[in-house]
Amino acid sequence: MNSALKIHRHLLAIGLCSGLAAFASAAHADDDRFTLRLGAMQADAESRITGRAEFAGDTYDYDSDRFDIGDDIVPRVEGTFRFAERHRIHFNYFRYDAGNDALLSEDVTFDETTFPAGSRVDLDTRFDLGSVMYDYGVVETPTFGFGLQVGAETAGLRGTLRSESGEDSFRVRESERGTAPVVGARISANTADGRWRVIAQGQYLDADWGDFGDYDGDITRANALVEYRFTPKFGIFAGYDWFDLDVTREMDDGRVGFEQRFHGPIAGVTFAF
Fold first, then answer.
1. Which of 221, 234, 231 minimizes the C-alpha distance to 76?
2. Most confident of 85-99, 131-145, 240-254
3. What CATH number was assigned to the domain covering residues 32-272?
4. What percent of the chain has pLDDT over 70?
5. Looking at beta carbons, which pairs linking 50-58 to residues 24 or more positions away fall under 8 Å?
6. Which residues lie below 8 Å from residue 216, measured CB to CB, with a gap of 6+?
7. Cβ atoms of 266 and 242 closer than 8 Å
């Protein structure tokens, strides 16, 4: 009887240990110390320009329709370093560099030079955005997580506009770079075996928080991806990324506003360590 009881206790102990081990494995399905995602984005870029000028006591407003700059495949990289159960560092980088040309549908005047309808205009745009954020896991379960983020984001924008009409030509180039605090949130989910993962993030930056010179405005970003792990250390992902840069620059005789939007599908490979 005692021997049978000892055997049952022994089996119960083994069962409990196995159950705890299985639970621990499930509770840490997303337990990679370092995750790196290398990929690309088919970025579609749209722009909108607004302005207000004071001249000879009169106020002139300008508001362009949103126009398509074009799409291009651009590099995209992001990663996560998890240094404790609820604590992570996220980083990412995106860069768009493309040009587009168009024919003017109506007369346009730049600095007392008028370009008639039908003139060709070339626009080169370069935009890069990088961020480093601390993520605190407010909710952590075996298959779901919710985190709040705070960090810093740096953004750079450079635009060159060229136009020619006969012997007349016009060229202007503007650039600005700044860094500011950013806040955000993360939602993540995974299957119990960790093979399928879904991650969605959103961030917001106000130019007034940082050193963007004479510019006011904000940067909004949201992205989501689905990932499949072939092994615990290697997988592929696909998703969608969206940025919106909306800034205004105050000048002595008025102001000019610029909205730049990037959006498109993303895809790449995942390495975990």
1. 221
2. 131-145
3. 2.40.128.90
4. 60
5. 50/248, 50/256, 50/257, 50/258, 50/259, 51/254, 51/255, 51/256, 51/257, 52/254, 52/255, 53/253, 53/254, 54/253, 54/254, 55/253
6. 207, 208, 247, 248, 249, 250
7. no
Return the structure tokens found at 168: 């007349």
Q: What is the pLDDT of residues 10-31, one digit of tens each?
A: 433 434 444 333 333 444 456 7
Give the domain ranges of the chain. 1-30, 32-272
Residues 6+ apart with CB under 8 A from 212: 176, 178, 180, 247
Q: Indicate the pairing of strand 108-110 with strand 113-115.
A: antiparallel
In the block, residue with structure tokens 């790449």: 268
Write b or e for each residue in 183-217: b if 16 or more Cβ atoms lie within 10 A of its Cβ, otherwise e: bbbbebebeeebeebbbbbbbebebebbebeebbb
φ, ψ for residue 12, nearest 5 deg: -65, -40
Q: What is the pLDDT of residues 25-64, one digit of tens each?
A: 444 456 789 999 999 999 887 777 666 555 555 555 555 5
pTM of the model: 0.72
